[in-house]
Specification:
288 residues; mainly alpha; 7 helices; DUF4328; transmembrane helix; membrane; DUF4328 domain-containing protein; transmembrane
């Protein structure tokens, strides 16, 4: 620093110039350094209400408020399945009438005093063969449409609830055909679809065993298995050429018809209820 009057250098400690005696203005105060801007401390997130645990599903509300998954339409296939079941039931009733007529005709043959109309016998044989063919055709058609329905209903159920189903999708087809397992696999498939589609099943469900199985499923499957067993007995009796075997086969088949109608009605109610469940869940998801 120098003197402002004579230009002589001044020592930092002196208050006057040694040359001219002029008082020094002093060292200007050093400005205080500007403090560096302090970033605000990061705000830690609030503790989660639901603890994060490996394998635990997110809260129900969080899942249900998520964007809804596009559902495959099921109404058309449901109507088709029920309509085909109705056709099968109508043919089954017609076949029951034919069997009742056959019982009467065979009884007349055993009665030596009763006259038997050969034309009536031929007509009964023709109607019996025709109703048998129609019943088989409607059964196959119903089975094909039902399998397509199962695939679509299963896809919707898997989109709504993450719980794994007991059987893979391949069994939706071969489960009806493979011996032994065909006695319970189709029912298990239908049970899983029902339980995953039911509105009371939460979207966070990861185990379908925790939900209830439908009573309709038991009614449908028990009636269907009993009808199949009686149909197998009838098929063996029809291989015999004796009139007594034909008469017994007609009696068993006529009595098996109401059981088949119970199975068809229960299945129709099952597919209709599942369709309603899935539509109800979709509407609920859209309203969240």
């Amino acid at each position: 620093m120098v003197c402002a009057l004579c230009g002589r250098p001044l020592s930092p400690q002196s208050t006057t110039c040694e040359g001219c005696g002029t008082a020094s203005a002093g060292t200007p105060p050093t400005p205080a350094p500007t403090p560096a801007p302090v970033s605000p401390a990061p705000i830690s997130p609030a503790p989660a209400i639901y603890p994060t645990i490996t394998g635990m599903a997110p809260p129900l509300r969080a899942v249900e408020s998520a964007p809804s998954v596009r559902m495959l339409p099921l109404r058309g296939l449901t109507v088709a399945v029920i309509s085909l079941l109705g056709v099968w039931a109508f043919v089954a009733l017609a076949r029951m009438v034919v069997n009742i007529q056959r019982i009467s005709l065979v009884g007349k043959v055993f009665d030596e005093n009763a006259a038997v109309d050969s034309l009536a016998v031929d007509r009964n044989d023709t109607l019996h063969a025709l109703t048998s063919l129609l019943q088989f055709a409607t059964l196959i058609a119903t089975g094909v449409v039902l399998v397509v329905w199962l695939f679509r209903a299963r896809a919707n159920a898997e989109a709504m609830v993450p719980a794994p189903h007991h059987l893979g999708r391949t069994w939706l087809v071969i489960g009806w055909l493979v011996p032994v397992v065909s006695l319970w696999f189709p029912k298990r498939i239908m049970d899983d679809i029902w339980r995953a589609s039911h509105p009371n099943t939460p979207s966070t469900c990861y185990d379908l065993n925790l939900t209830n199985r439908p009573g309709l499923g038991y009614a449908w499957w028990a009636a269907w298995l009993l009808h199949l067993a009686l149909d197998r007995v009838v098929s063996r009796l029809l291989r015999s050429e004796s009139l007594e075997s034909l008469r017994l086969a007609a009696i068993i088949e006529a009595n098996a018809t109401p059981i088949g109608l119970v199975a068809a009605t229960s299945l129709a109610l099952l597919v209709w209820r599942v369709k309603g469940f899935q539509e109800q869940r979709q509407i609920h998801a859209l309203n969240l």
